[in-house]
Amino acid sequence: MAAAGLLPVVGLLLLVLPGALGKRSQVKTLTDSTWRDLLQGEWMIEFYAPWCPACQSLQPEWEKFAEWGEDLEVNIAKVDVTEEPGLSGRFIITALPTIYHCKDGEFRRYQGPRTKNDFINFISDKEWKSIEPVSSWFGPSSLMMSSMSALFQLSMWIRHCHSYITEDIGIPVWGSYAIFALATLFSGLVLGLIMVFLADCLCPSKRHRPQQYPYSKKLTSESSRFLKKLDEEQEADEEDLSDDEAENKELVDRDSSTNAVRQRPVNPAATTDKS
Hints:
Among the domains are: 24-143, Glutaredoxin (3-Layer(aba) Sandwich), CATH 3.40.30; 171-206. The protein is built from nine helices and five strands. The protein has helices at residues 2-21, 53-66, 69-72, 85-90, 116-124, 143-169, 173-202, 214-262, 268-274; strands at residues 28-29, 42-48, 75-80, 98-103, 106-110.
């Protein structure tokens, strides 16, 4: 009889528990590889951390709001900044929780009350139109924010390396800092050499002339003076020669005229007439 009385209770539990246990969250989880889905359609995204008390108190309201996502035609998503540091840098998350609204690639930061009804009114009444969108320079798909995301990922990788060195290997903390300092110096040296190499390839410098010492300058000036003096003497000699040639020419002309007078022939008929 007792077993027969338990059958309805067991049947009821079998009907209720699968629905309760099988109820899945309507909130989508975004990662660094799927964040570009935000660029299409309308989204509400929450950035949170599991250890954040404010984020923990927001989770029930966010889950209730996600149940209205299909009716409002909006996607509800969340990002764990402890697991996705790249997205934390890409969206410049400085406080938790942070909520963004995205519509066809335009991002706006939500700063209103954090209740289910307020979220619903924000979407249904299109209150997001009164908020100025984030500038394209600071948009998550811009080059600047992509670089910021890479820096955040690098910082998280360094943190993991530090934990591995100190906890797994057992090296003291100061030893880990020394390793990172040497690695920083080495990487800076390599980057500097690469930049110098690229600068020489793109903008080659002119070859410098050999350095001239003071005595060489003195010799150069004296030699120039000597050459100048030789040129002046040569010009003077040429002038003297030209004067001598002119005098000799005059003398030759005089002698030639005198000889011409002496050699003039006498007419015989003229002498006969005189006689």
